[in-house]
Structure formats: structure tokens, C-alpha cells
Design brief:
The chain has one domain. 80% of the residues lie in helices and 0% in strands. The radius of gyration is 20 Å and the shape is elongated. The model has no long low-confidence stretch (mean pLDDT 89). The structure holds fe (ii) ion (FE2) (2 copies). The site of one fe (ii) ion has 3 residues, from α4.
């Protein structure tokens, strides 16, 4: 994806539009944020959820976390979701509003498709966590 975006930014630069390449900047930022987000989930939140679940199911004392309720880290991850979804929206707008020479369509059309696929993946990710996983964790914490 990085390469496709770099080509698109280049083509847009050649087409006389802003050579600032806001698309590749947004994409780089998005990628960094998302990688960090996934690490926070995999390395911090999910293990915490597992500990909570194990304690609740075994009837042991619930773990006490230094940050208080598990709702606190969840709140941060929900904010990440909003930010990352906004960045994808911005990239889709940027390409969607692009009206360059038809000769560059072969660069932009597939990129638009890939961004749309990324958008769909992101929506699913956000749905599964915000609507299903996180509410369950809140319930689990309420039981403990
Ligand atoms: Fe996730
Ligand atoms: Fe997430």
C-alpha cells in the first residue's frame, strides 16, 4: 500500500496539484497509529481481559489494576478507533475528490479500492470491539 500511495502522490504532484503529498503523510501517520493501537491491544488490553476473565470464572478475587477500571484503557482504544477511522475517511475523500487526468486513473482507481477494503476492515474491527468485546468486558468487570 505504501508504494501505491507514493505513486499516487507523485502522479498528483505531476498533475499540478499540491505537491505536498498529504495522502502519503496521512497514510504514514495512520499506519504508525494503527500499529501502535494493535500493540496496545495485543500486549496490554487483551492480556488484562484474560486475567479478569480467568479470575471471574474461577471465583478468585478480581485483579486490581493500577489504572483503576478497565474502562480507562478501553476509553483510550475507543479514541484510537475514532482517530484511525477519521484518517481513512480523509484519505478516501482526498482520492474521491481527485480530478486528475484520465491517464492517472490506473493509479488512483486501485488505490481507492484498497482504501475502501481497509475502511471495511477497520469498520469491522471497530464494531467487534466497541459493540461486542468492550461491553462484555464492562459486564465482566461489573460481576467481579
Ligand atoms: Fe483489535
Ligand atoms: Fe481496536
Amino acid at each position: 500500500m505504501d508504494r501505491a500511495i507514493a505513486r499516487a502522490a507523485e502522479a498528483r504532484g505531476r498533475a499540478g496539484a499540491s505537491a505536498q503529498a498529504p495522502l502519503s503523510r496521512t497514510f504514514r501517520f495512520f499506519k504508525r497509529e494503527l500499529e501502535l493501537h494493535l500493540r496496545k491491544e495485543e500486549e496490554v488490553l487483551f492480556p488484562l481481559i484474560r486475567r479478569l476473565e480467568t479470575a471471574v470464572h474461577s471465583g478468585a478475587n478480581p485483579p486490581r489494576f493500577s489504572f483503576g477500571s478497565i474502562a480507562n484503557p478501553i476509553g483510550i482504544l475507543r479514541e484510537d478507533h475514532e482517530g484511525e477511522s477519521r484518517q481513512i475517511g480523509r484519505m478516501l475523500d482526498w482520492i474521491g475528490n481527485y480530478s486528475g487526468p484520465p491517464s492517472t486513473a490506473h493509479i488512483f482507481d486501485p488505490l481507492f479500492d484498497r482504501l475502501q477494503a481497509l475502511d471495511a476492515d477497520m469498520r469491522l474491527h471497530v464494531h467487534l470491539e466497541d459493540e461486542i468485546l468492550f461491553p462484555r468486558v464492562r459486564l465482566l468487570e461489573g460481576e467481579s
